Amino acid sequence: IKDKSSFLISGRRSYYDVFFPLVPDLKDVTAYFGDLNIKLNYTLSPKDKLYLSGYFGQDNLGFAKTFGFGWGNKTGTLRWNHIFNDKLFVNTSVVYSRYDYNFDINISDNLNFTRLNYIDDLNLKIDGNYYQSAKSNIKFGIKLNSFVFLPGEIEIITEESVVSAESLLKKRAIQHD
Fold it and tell me: How confident is the model at residue 84 (pLDDT cuts 50, 70, 90)?
């Protein structure tokens, strides 16, 4: 909507893996990196604006479906900017992010598994500025984070695997600033 909203979408991906089949020694190699960015903003009123952004990235490396590992990041932010007057404004944000990584072993029917790990972060942040004068600015705010850590979870690929499906307990934490 003209003069009220805008958006941006961008992405990229490597193409190493497209050319690997052309080299006999590399035909079974997996290697790619990619990400996607999305940004939207919307003016609710002259004193209120909403911003939404997201990032998604995934990288993978592997060899002949025998061994591989991958890692990625995902994050999303919703921010509300409110102007109370010409001296005071406040930003309120909700942010979610996840970092994950895994590795896969598939050597034989009895030795194959995937190990998964991740860190989740959900936070609420309120920060503001009060411009008392041209030479005096007061910044204030509060932030609350909730974390979830999965330090390791093993999934077996076949019933014959000598590796057992196991999971370490999730850890949780809360932080405030």
Answer: very high
The backbone torsions φ and ψ at residue 145, rounded to the nearest 5 degrees and listed phi first, read -115, 140
| % of the chain with per-residue pLDDT over 70 | 100
Distance CA 51, CA 124 (A): 15
What gap in Å lies between CA 65 and CA 107, rounded to an integer? 9
Tens of pLDDT, residues 42-52: 999 999 999 99
Rounded Cα distance, 131 and 92, in Å: 18
Burial of 113 (0-12, 13-18, 19+ CB in 10 A): buried
Instruction: Please give the Cα distance from 105 to 154 (Å, whole number).
Output: 11
Intra-chain end-to-end CA distance of the chain, in Å: 37
Burial class (CB in 10 A: 0-12, 13-18, 19+), 147: middle
**Residues with Cβ within 8 Å of residue 114, at least 6 apart in sequence:** 102, 103, 104, 105, 154, 155, 157
Q: Which residue has the tokens 């893996």?
A: 17
Whole-number Å distance between alpha carbons of 63 and 72 = 19
125 confidence band (pLDDT: 50, 70, 90): very high
Q: Rounded distance, CA 75 to CA 52, Å?
A: 11
pLDDT of the residue at 70? 93
